[in-house]
Design brief:
Shape: elongated
Oligomer: single chain
Helix content: 55-70%
Number of helices: 25
Number of strands: 11
Structural class: alpha+beta
Length: 743
């Protein structure tokens, strides 16, 4: 592989005009596609195999034309202090608002609070339910404006009015912190390279890659039903890996220049060595993201595949466009240790002036310390991560609702008003669907189910059964006593299902529980059940891949165990902030609660891929030194001397990019941004910088042991570039790529 990539790097360097033209054309094509594509429509959130989804499908079949997936809105009214909603003036205002709402062209129905028993017991709060023919993302702007105008007119009449539901849902934004993250990345690159041109290359190539990826997602959003969160996550991961992959190529290029090689040769060798690590690191990320398909949640699968596509683009750009831009940059990219004149280049330090060798860098000094005291460093790192992981034992999973939104939003204020007037469970009603098609007395079955539910704990109210036209299916709305995300509500869902099982055994009628609250519970359980198979699949495939890369059993095993430590510590930090409320104000978390159901499995996938990035980049340098004859401990020090500074810069950049998304208005993006940033910190600075060298120092030569039969069976991918060294010794190599250029 190293030889092929070496040829590719030299070819891209020499034919840089052609390579740059291809990538600019792809960016333009993707941009035009995104600009001309129809706006994204509804994003179906189906959960195959769950009871909630089965009930939803049954509703579509037995209650046709009810727009089960249509947008909803709850216009919540609160009377002024000392008044009630039944007062004549207030009642007239509400009735006028209901009449105005009913005039909308996309409105399916509006329920009057006074005829639908939607006034609180104390008379201070009332709500009008609005159903639309289309989903929230498909609503016309005029329809949303009419909803907001009707609410504002009621406010002008003296009432407190807020609007809940998904009719006013907005596309999430990330805020200014995303730009700050990119700015931090730029500063780190300048410090690392000591050159503005060299620092600008990774940023430029990463932005081009993300531009192509996100524009492609936007262009396909309508056809593939991709949500807005998909493009945000693809941008987050694409930026991080795009900068990092280009950083490693440019860093190795400068190191090759420092050894006296010509620029084209240096570009080829940089792509042949660091590029091999980029390919395998990118492959582990892609495996982790595509592996999300095993969960069998279409939305999560699409998110994973879209992000994986962006990572693949980042790898291709690092292997082709980076060497092409290095060709354009020419002598403006300095060898390692040289700085541009703007940043102090040309001034020698004291050691160089006296003819003395420059002192060892920080990476060398740290690695030397670790190999002298490996056991102490290992214990300290493991104990520290174990302590950070303790909160993960209290992990509670759920999906966000209006109660998790900022208090500045009208949806959150409507949620709070409904909780105040009708109780916390009112925001999470359960819909029970009774399929009595196989029963001789369907009406009696409906009544029996309703009475059975009334006798359960944590039930505040049960509406009378509402049968369909055929009389074989009915819906029953159940109001819990607890808020939607509580454990008590989850227990109630299971209790209703258990009672339905008994009724089915007696009558043959099937009782199903659905609604957003039940759907969230089913999603959480499905993700929880899929976590272990996903871990086995992803870690197993990556373990096999790393055996091929490192030609060792213990090094990949250590990499996998170190990843588990870092991801558990990161989950502990997420629980501490988003569930327990530690530092929640600093993170902009206004409402603590269960951790996003998708968070653990998504974090496992992404963090595993990123953790293997640092493992591959850092340990391949160590293996390269070991293959070339250095003793194990000295190889560890050599690997840190060449790679620690760059890996540190890459980790800081990735943390900055991920942390930039903490300012998002989307709860899921905020949580994932924080979780990935803290996970990168734990993995890069504790696991890879401390635990990895400590374990390698303790293992010595055993770290690189591989059974002879397996060594013969495995393909030689030559990540360390040994083939390049051999070719050079034979006198070939620099011009071998002419054949590739002709093909």
């Amino acid at each position: 592989m190293a030889t092929f990539l070496y040829k590719l790097g030299r070819l891209a360097f020499r034919r840089r005009h052609f390579v740059a033209l291809i990538w600019v054309a792809l960016l333009t094509l993707a941009g035009v596609g995104a600009a001309s594509a129809p706006p994204a429509g509804t994003t179906s959130f189906s959960i195959p195999g769950t009871e909630a989804q089965k009930a939803f499908d049954l509703l579509e079949e037995r209650f046709p034309g009810t727009s089960a997936d249509g947008a909803t809105a709850r216009v919540v009214f609160k009377a002024p202090s000392g008044e009630t909603m039944t007062a004549a003036d207030n009642k007239a205002t509400v009735e006028k608002t209901v009449a105005d709402l009913a005039d909308g062209s996309e409105v399916a129905s509006v329920a009057d609070p006074y005829t639908g028993n939607a006034v609180s017991a104390d008379g201070t709060v009332a709500y009008a339910s609005v159903r639309y023919d289309v989903s929230g993302m498909e609503l016309e702007d005029t329809t949303k404006d009419a909803l907001e105008d009707a609410a504002q007119q009621a406010r002008d009449a003296g009432l407190t009015v807020e609007v809940g539901g998904d009719a006013l849902q907005a596309v999430p934004h990330t805020g200014a912190t995303e730009v700050i993250g990119i700015a931090v990345a730029a500063v780190v690159l300048v410090i690392t390279f000591g050159s503005l041109v060299a620092a600008g290359l990774p940023l430029l190539t990463a932005l081009i890659g993300v531009g192509i990826g996100v524009s492609s997602i936007t262009a396909l959003a309508s056809a593939l039903e991709l949500g807005s969160t998909t493009s945000i996550l693809a941008m987050m991961i694409g930026l991080a890996v795009g900068i990092d992959y280009a950083l490693f190529i440019v860093s190795r290029y400068r190191a090759e220049l420092a050894e006296g090689r010509e620029r084209e040769e240096a570009a080829g060798r940089a792509v042949g060595t660091a590029g091999s690590a980029v390919v395998f690191a990118g492959l582990t990320v892609v495996i982790a993201l595509v592996g999300l398909a095993v969960v069998n949640i279409p939305m999560l699968t699409k998110m994973g595949i879209a992000a994986a596509g962006t990572v693949a683009i980042a790898v291709l750009i690092a292997l082709t466009m980076v060497p092409a831009l290095l060709g354009y940059a020419g002598r403006r990219v300095k060898p390692t240790g040289a700085k541009s004149k703007l940043l102090g280049g040309g001034r020698k330090n004291g050691a160089e002036a006296d003819g003395k060798p420059a002192k060892a860098n920080l990476g060398t000094r740290w690695a030397s310390f670790v190999v002298r005291r490996p056991l102490a460093v290992l214990l300290l790192g493991v104990i520290g991560l174990g302590a950070a992981a303790i909160p993960a034992a209290s992990l509670e999973l759920g999906l966000p609702d209006d109660g998790s939104q900022p208090t500045s939003t009208t949806q959150r204020r409507a949620y709070d008003l409904l909780s105040e007037g009708f109780g916390p469970g009112f925001n999470g009603p359960l819909m029970v669907v009774v399929d009595a098609k196989g029963s001789d007395v369907p009406k009696q079955v409906f009544t029996d189910v309703s009475n059975e539910i009334k006798g359960l704990e944590d039930v505040v109210a049960v509406t009378p059964p509402a049968p369909n036209k055929g009389g074989d299916t009915a819906t029953i709305t159940v109001i819990p006593d607890s808020k939607p995300s509580s454990v008590q509500t989850e227990d109630l869902v299971h209790a209703i299902r258990d009672a339905g099982g008994d009724i089915q055994a007696d009558t043959g009628a099937e009782t199903l529980v659905t609604g957003s609250t039940a759907m969230n519970i089913d999603v959480s359980e499905k993700l929880n059940d899929a976590l272990l198979p996903y871990l086995v699949l992803v870690v197993g495939l990556a373990f096999l891949l790393l055996i091929v890369v490192f030609r060792s059993i213990l090094v990949p095993l250590k990499a996998a165990l170190g990843f588990l430590l870092s991801v558990m510590a990161a989950l502990g930090a997420v629980v501490a902030v988003f569930q327990w409320g530690w530092l929640s104000g600093l993170m902009g978390v206004e409402e603590t609660g269960p951790v996003m159901s998708m968070m653990p499995i998504f974090m496992v996938g992404v963090v595993f891929g990123l953790a293997m990035d640092y493992e591959v980049f850092l340990v391949t340098r160590m293996r390269e030194a070991h293959v070339h004859g250095e003793k194990p401990n000295q190889a560890v020090v050599t690997g840190f001397r060449h790679g620690a500074r760059v890996v540190t810069a890459a980790a800081v950049i990735m943390m900055a990019v991920f942390a930039g998304f903490i300012g998002s208005s989307e709860a899921m993006v905020k949580m994932i941004g924080f979780g990935l940033a803290i996970a990168v910190f734990f993995d890069a600075f504790v696991v890879r910088m401390a635990i990895v060298p400590a374990v390698l120092a303790l293992l010595g030569k055993k770290a690189w042991w591989l059974p002879k039969w397996l060594d013969r069976a495995l393909p030689n991918v030559d990540v360390e570039g040994e083939g390049l060294r051999t070719a050079q010794e034979r006198g070939s190599g620099p011009d071998e790529d002419r054949e590739l250029a002709r093909t």
